[in-house]
Amino acid sequence: MTRDDILDAAAQVIRKKGFHAASMADIASAVNLQKASLYHHVSSKQEILLELLDRALEMLTAQIAPIVNQSIPADEKLRRMIHVYLQSLAENPDLSSILLFEHRSLDKKSHARHVPNRDRFESLWRDVVHEGVRAKLFACTDVGLAVRGLMGILNWTLTWYHPDGPLSIEKIADHYTDLFFNGLLKKQKE
Questions:
Q1: Of 26, 38, 88, 144, which residue is least crowded by CB atoms under 10 Å?
Q2: CATH of 45-182 among 1.10.357.10, 3.40.50.1820, 3.40.50.2300, 1.10.10.10
């Protein structure tokens, strides 16, 4: 039994039950350990939650950062980031669910440790939007608000998306990109 096995099982249990309803006994049972044996690997549910949040952000950062560093226009970067981000959320539903919905369950000390990691990830998005504004590709008066709005749309997708639904995650990403770049208003012919 490895720590990764325990974390994988914990992610599944927490996704299904929620952080507060999931117990250490539930996690131990999921990996066929006695509860006392689980404490040889982890000290608490808070430790597990923080490590799962770190794991999720590390995975997403590893996929998004290379796009940010490409020598392509900011609009193309943002388009690719949206696609990769949604694909990653869809392919990793346990970690994604914990990242998006369980971070509020962190205690004060763990929350303080988590926030800088979250902010570093969000800064990748802000940097690209700033880049687009500087290049006059984007008209944006509040980059932070635009990024929070975009992330909210992308993150909320996990609450309703089904892999066997009418739209693939790629099509959803295309629709979101079009909406974000072009808005809802019909273009007037000149």
A1: 144
A2: 1.10.357.10
pTM over 0.85: yes
Q: How many residues does the chain have?
A: 190
Share of the chain above pLDDT 90, in %: 88
Residue 40 pLDDT > 90: no
**What pLDDT digit, counting tens, does each position of 69-92 carry?**
999 999 999 999 999 999 999 999
DSSP letters spanning the chain:
--HHHHHHHHHHHHHHH-TTT--HHHHHHHTT--HHHHTTT-S-HHHHHHHHHHHHHHHHHHHHHHHHTSSS-HHHHHHHHHHHHHHHHHH-HHHHHHHHHTGGGS-HHHHHHHHHHHHHHHHHHHHHHHHHHHTTS---S-HHHHHHHHHHHHHHGGGT--TTSSS-HHHHHHHHHHHHHH-SSPPPP-
pLDDT at residue 3 greater than cutoff 70 = yes
